[in-house]
Each structure stands twice: as C-alpha cells, then as structure tokens.
Amino acid sequence: MSHPSATRSATLLQHAGRDARLGSGLVGALEQSVTFATTRVDDMPIYARLSNTTNHVEVCALVAALHGAPAARVFASGMAAIHAVLTTRLRPGDHILVQENCYGTSQGLCQKILSRWGIEASFVPLEQWQAALRPNTRVLFFESISNPYCIPQNLAFALEAKRVSSGLLVCDNTFASPINCKPFLHGVDVVVESATKYMNGHSDLICGAVACGSDFAQELAVTAMYVGGFLSSAGCMHLAKGLRTLQVRMAAHNANGRAFASAVRELPDVSEVYHGSLCAMQDDWIKDFAGMVTVRFAKHIDVSRLMRSLNLVADVPSLGGTETTACLPWWTTNRWMADSEKQRLKIDEQLVRFSIGLEDVNDLLDDLKQGLALARR
Ligand code: PLP
Description:
Elements: H1 9-15, E1 35-36, E2 46-47, H2 54-67, E3 71-75, H3 78-89, E4 95-99, H4 104-113, E5 120-124, H5 129-132, E6 137-143, H6 155-165, E7 168-172, H7 177-180, E8 190-194, E9 208-212, H8 214-227, H9 233-243, H10 246-264, E10 270-274, E11 292-297, H11 303-309, E12 314-315, E13 325-327, H12 339-344, E14 351-355, H13 361-375
Parallel strand pairs: 4-5, 4-6, 6-7, 7-8, 12-13
Antiparallel strand pairs: 1-2, 3-9, 8-9, 10-11, 11-14, 13-14
Helix pairs in contact: 2-9, 3-8, 10-13, 11-13
The structure holds pyridoxal-5'-phosphate.
C-alpha cells in the first residue's frame, strides 16, 4: 500500500494508500460497515472507532507519506485532533507553552477546558519561549503560519525550547499545508492539521489529521479509542479524494496569495497586509505561504459594508477552499476572547482575513476595489 520508491509529494499524493492489487478498484471503495470479521479470534478487532477500517488505513497512509512521518491518524475535526494530541501527553499539574496569537479556539481549549484538569497554559511569542519554560512544561504548541496574522514562525526558537525542556513539540500546520511545510521532517514531534481547510480543500468536510512517530501514534490510538472523535469511513474516503489534488491546488493558492498580497498593499484604503511573502524574515522550512492574507483596512473604510459589497468573496468563518472567502477575526476566530486581550493582540474590527481561492486574482482585485469604493465613510 505504501510506495517507498516515491518520495515527492506530487507522486505520493497519487499513489500512497492505494491498494493496487489485481482486481481491486482504482479508487478505494467506501466501506460503510462499522466493523469487519477478522481471520482469527485473537486478531485486533476492526471497528471504525479504532480507525482501522480500509478507508482509515488508506487516508492515514496518505497523510503519513505526505509528511514523511511513520504514522498518521485522522479525526472528526481539527479541534478533535488537537484535543487528542494534548490530552494524550498532558497530565494534571503540567504546563503547556503556547505561541501567543495563535488560533483562538486552540487558546480557548487550553484556557477553558484543559485548565479544568489542572493544566496551566502560557501564551508567549516563540522568541521568548526558552525563558518561559518551566520544569513541568510537557508540551510546546505553535503554528507554522499563525492564525489570524498569517505570519510564518521561526522554527529555530521552537527546536531550541524542545531541546532544553524535552517537551513534546506540536505544530499546527493548517495554514501552510503539507505541500508548503513538512514540520515532522524538521524535528517537530507531532503535526496537527485542520484537514477541513487546504487538505480536503473543498469546504465540504470537517476533519483533522495528525502525523507523528509510531510510539506517539500508539498512545494517540489509546486516547482515541476511549474518547472517540474519530473520522467516519465516509469522511476518510472524502478526505482521500480531496488530498489527491492538494499539490495542484496549493500551487495556485500560493501564486494567488502572493499576487493578492502584493497588489492589496498598494491600495490607499489599506493600512497593513500580512502574508508570508511580505515578511522580512523567512525561514526556509516553509516553502511557500498559501492563500492566507490578512488585511487591516484604514479607519475610513466601513468593513462591514465592504464585506457585504464583495461579489466574489463569501463572508464565512472558514478557509482553504477552492473559492475565495474572508472573515473578521474579531467576530469569528477570536470571538470568545476578552475584548481587552483582542486589543492587546491588535485584533480589531478593521482586520479581515482572506483565504484566496483559485479564481483569477485580477477579478478578485477588481471586486475588492469596487467594494472599497462603496465602503468609504
Ligand atoms: N487550527 C487552525 C489553525 C484553524 O484555523 C482551525 C479552524 O479554523 C482549527 C485548527 C480547527 O479546525 P476544525 O474547524 O477542523 O476543528
């Protein structure tokens, strides 16, 4: 099922996880059955909650191969994946060091849920991680490209904190995708992704993925067996189909993201633009920056009117689909954060996070310009 001869993502995406035995379908069939008979009574039971049906095996092989990791598991959502990873490692009394200004719901998971079990979290920029380590720091959590600011993170700081603390280094790679960044190959212990976004890529499935070493995958399997949160067999088949086109979709997202960011920066109605291609310091562990572009519009722009005036950009709280979407972090990703905290992180109501899709970028720019003309106060 795996193809050790292929190492390049484009080839792995077409072949990893496929069962090419004579007589089998070119595309894995959807096995609706929640369970399968095994040959011996003492064989491991095959049961969807254990994520070991043929559809799970196919998609997990594909995700692992893509990341160059020994193992992968899939979950019912990105948050289920993150929750499973964190609760597999953390125990009451432990400390988790989290990158400041990462996805609001990941912060909320630490502050509102893990805290119930006596786990303390600190939110600190990566460059200050080493000073923030504690003797009980057991997990270090960061995003390769941060949400909502689309800023590529400097891996060296994370690796140094891991070396000093021997904490589990976990990277959320959702914004980059495994085409642009393969954190496991650079020394990260566990990669988590909201596969809802670029990996599935069509805004029609909520799912999460984890790529890691075999030992951690075993521990994760135990958590998942008791907690659930697994992806259904139909979800696995759906995700595998989305993944097969990831390489070509990412090439277009990368090009459009760059073009949109550099053109928008020139507009008089815009005060700041965030995209990896515009960052002064770029670390080559991230090859390109996808279609995530965050824009702070000038005060004279009525952003809610702008959002309603755009014809080609849907105002929705997701990203990574073939179509361009946008959202206001103030009201979506960071909605549940205290206003004072949002203000400290400079997340205000002028900030819009775009996910640039596969349209012609000139049409998107024309649409934005006509929207801005209607939204000037
Ligand atoms: N991580 C990041 C960076 C995200 O942007 C999101 C969702 O937007 C998640 C995790 C959670 O993913 P899901 O919605 O699939 O649970």
